[in-house]
Design a protein that fits this description.
There is one protein chain. By secondary structure, the chain is an alpha/beta fold. Helices cover about 25% and strands about 15% of the residues. The chain is built from 15 helices and 22 strands. The strands form six sheets. Strands 1-2-5-9-10-11-14-15 form an eight-stranded parallel barrel. It has a five-stranded antiparallel β-sheet with strand order 16-17-18-22-20. Strands 6-8-7 form a three-stranded antiparallel β-sheet, with no helix packed on it. The longest helix has 17 residues. The chain is globular. Bound molecules: 6-O-alpha-D-glucopyranosyl-D-fructose. 6-O-alpha-D-glucopyranosyl-D-fructose (ISL) binds next to loops.
């Protein structure tokens, strides 16, 4: 089947189902809740949804631990609900991409239960099981450490064998070396594609192939062993196999979550002729405010670094592959208040500026639920307000290793993954219109004035600004195909870039400063037409705090 590459014209909205809309009064979002909000998404103007996992799961990692790939988690609804949702989306011209979590399953998956209870189980080799070290194998097979802190190995009962888990204990890694595992994955893909879904966001897909030596690696502060489990030796082979055996037969798209991948590695993953993935999420820009990619090690944000990263990816992928554009997701803290912006006095202005900044780069933009109304980080006061497994593991690590405590004191509340997961703020009622009972996670107090109902009415809202941006992008070939030029690469408070296609040009000018800033570029744009801005009044050559302007010359 011919791929139409529809994703290049998509604006994708990410739904984190647990926190989106509760219809059955259990304090958790669900599929009928999503259906009830499809007109909202249609009004916003998005034409594709990425749905975080809705599969049957014990929810140790909120669904990123799947116990049955063909069933829906009961509190979220039924397969019938799912089919209705898909139908209702398609009726509105909205495509659906699902989360594909196949680096690991849940420890509650039948395969895993069988694998660990019986050494002769046909599923034993579906997982990565190795003998421990020391007397009676009581020590883990090697020193690798995982994404949520601590060893990547868990002992199987009191035997001398251990299984590998790069994430939580309840997320055992699948053994992709086993061809049967790959056939199972293909069957799962076909199951959903045949039902009509339009593609997949492939969770931690760059971790599926591991070097098979399983030897100790150089000790370090985080992710010991990553050279053995990130971008492993057979990654490309596996992805190409999925492509030829499955994706090639559907007009679908894939976007890989490629943690810790460089531009060169990404090029190999998305070059169309290699037939692996269509797009990747890279995290270089979300790592500009931390050290060594460890978000808990916070570092002051510098605009120059962000620009460097965007230029690197915009230029680097040009003509070779397609970028994904995002500044928020369910793992990242809220963008407003981040990247040197302000989530108090200048919240609305800042959110619109950030939107202008990333939305008009080359690639497919993603909006994470609540971002379109400028939702902020959670009002968490202590670890007791936080549910996320990663935050609890890291908190525990801080208890066990006192030297880490001062770092965590600053960052545990502001960087943990529950910040973007607080219930979607639909209105100003007690539980923000998300639910009529107490939700699974604290509702932000600012629902009183940050909510979708108010935003839809207010012409000056962030919501309406996003609507205009989406409208502006539609059918705009300069935005889709134009080349990227950084106009002020060395400036540390103004981000100005142009997108050029032939004679046509779009120019985006964004101030990242709380102070007024003189900007010489503005004088050169006198012949251009200003099409959007986050302020009503304008000075000729001075930008107001966090001001954004979008100009065209055609
Ligand atoms: O959020 C992170 C660390 O704080 C990331 O490193 C994150 O763990 C990584 O991007 C992988 O994320 C994905 O896989 C995880 C799941 O918990 C995340 O929600 C998902 O986005 C395991 O399936």
């Amino acid at each position: 089947m011919k791929h139409t590459n529809w994703y290049k014209d998509a604006v994708i909205y990410q739904i984190y189902p647990r926190s989106f809309c509760d219809s059955n009064h259990d304090g958790m979002g669900d599929i009928p809740g999503i259906i009830s909000k499809l007109d909202y998404l249609k009004d916003l103007g998005v034409n594709c949804v990425w749905l975080s996992p809705i599969y049957d799961s014990p929810q140790e990692d909120n669904g990123y631990d799947i116990a049955n790939y063909r069933e829906i988690y009961k509190p979220f609804g039924t397969l019938e609900d799912f089919k209705t949702m898909l139908d209702e989306m398609h009726k509105r011209g909205i495509r659906l991409i699902m989360d594909l979590v196949v680096n690991h399953t849940s420890s509650e998956h039948e395969w895993f239960k069988s694998a660990i209870s019986d050494k002769n189980s046909p599923y034993r080799d579906y997982y990565i099981i190795r003998k421990g070290k020391g007397k009676n194998g009581k020590k883990p097979p090697n020193n690798w450490s995982g994404f949520f802190g601590g060893s990547t190995w868990e002992r199987i009962g009191d035997t001398d064998e251990w299984y590998l888990h790069l994430f939580a204990k309840g997320q055992p890694d699948l053994n992709w070396e086993n061809p049967k595992v790959r056939e199972e994955v293909k069957d799962i893909l076909r199951y959903w594609l045949d039902m009509g879904v339009d593609g997949f966001r492939c969770d931690v897909i760059t971790l599926i192939s591991k070097k098979q030596d399983f030897k100790n690696r150089m000790p370090g502060i985080a992710l010991v062993g990553k050279d053995a489990y990130v971008n492993g030796p057979r990654l490309h082979e596996y992805l190409h196999e999925l492509y030829t055996d499955v994706y090639a037969n559907y007009d679908c798209m894939t976007v890989g979550e490629t943690v810790l991948s460089s531009l060169d590695e990404a090029i190999d993953l998305v070059s169309p002729e290699r037939e692996e993935l269509d797009m990747v999420f890279n995290f270089d820009h979300t790592d500009t405010d931390n050290y060594m990619g460890v978000k808990w090690l916070y570092r002051k944000f510098k605009l120059k670094n962000l620009k460097k990263v965007f230029a690197h990816w915009q230029k680097g992928l040009r003509g070779k592959g397609w970028n994904s554009l995002f500044i928020e997701n369910h793992d990242q803290r809220r963008s407003v208040g981040r990247f040197g912006t302000d989530d108090k006095e200048y919240r609305v202005i800042s959110a619109k500026m950030l939107a202008s900044m990333y939305f008009l780069l080359q690639g497919t933009p993603f909006i994470y639920q609540g971002q379109e109304i400028g939702m902020t980080n959670g009002d968490f006061e202590s670890i007791d307000d936080v549910v996320d497994v990663e935050a609890h593991n890291i908190y525990q690590l801080g208890q066990d290793v006192p030297i880490l405590r001062p770092f965590l004191k600053k960052t545990l509340m502001s960087c943990n993954r529950d910040n973007p997961r607080t219930p979607m703020q639909w209105d100003d009622t007690r539980f923000a219109g998300f639910s009529d009972v107490k939700p699974w996670l604290k509702v932000n107090k600012n629902k009183a004035f940050i909510n979708a109902k108010a935003a839809q009415i207010d012409q000056g809202s962030i919501y309406n600004y996003f609507k205009s941006l989406i409208e502006f992008r539609k059918g705009n070939e300069v935005i889709r195909d134009g080349e990227y030029f950084d106009l002020l690469p060395r400036d540390n408070s103004i981000y100005a870039y142009a997108r050029r296609l032939g004679e046509k040009e779009v120019v985006v000018v964004c101030s990242f400063s709380k102070d007024k800033k003189k900007c010489k570029i503005l004088n050169e744009l006198k012949q251009h037409k200003l099409v959007m801005s986050n302020y009503q009044e304008k000075d000729d050559d001075v930008l107001k705090p966090f001001e954004a302007r979008i100009y065209i010359n055609y």
